[in-house]
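Hi there,

I know you've been waiting on this one. I reran it after we fixed the sequence typo, so this is the corrected version. Both the input and the resulting structure follow.
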Amino acid sequence: IGVAATANVAVKVYEASVNQTNIQSEYAKDLVGSEVAISGVSEKQISLGAKSVSAWKTSLKIPSPKLWTMKNPYLYIMKVTVTKDSKVIDEYYTQLGVRTVATKSGKFLLNNKIMFLPGVARHEEHPDYGRSVPKSIIYSDLQTVKGLNALYLRTAHYPNHLYTYLIADRLGIAIME
């Protein structure tokens, strides 16, 4: 904003509604399902100086959240909306899964349960496309990984396309890069 202004920031959380028609979407907005009750400060009015930025930190909780697992990759969608004079200036959507990760006595725990992670390694490279792998092939590769009953994917020594992580989260595949 080029001039000083007051804006309103609001956060909402939804259950992700993932199905065969939207699972391949790169946009979290396409997965929005029913709104979830959250506790904490989810709305704030902020003042912005001319040509400035502002940050707002809050702590929100989902009472009794459904936990993400490889067998049931339960996801939520968070939506952040910025409005000025009741007009939407910007919206941001992101997907997230609620889970705990820990180790105990040399064992890996996911949501306080001992996990064994059979997995595979995958380089993001294709004979026809090189390192510019189309999203359709990324999706197909991860479906193949899931079809092998692999729970864990080791990516290469470089970050993969962001789409890889979105789809892995939706299919219930843990990733280490």
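Quick highlight: The radius of gyration is 19 Å.

Best,
R. S.
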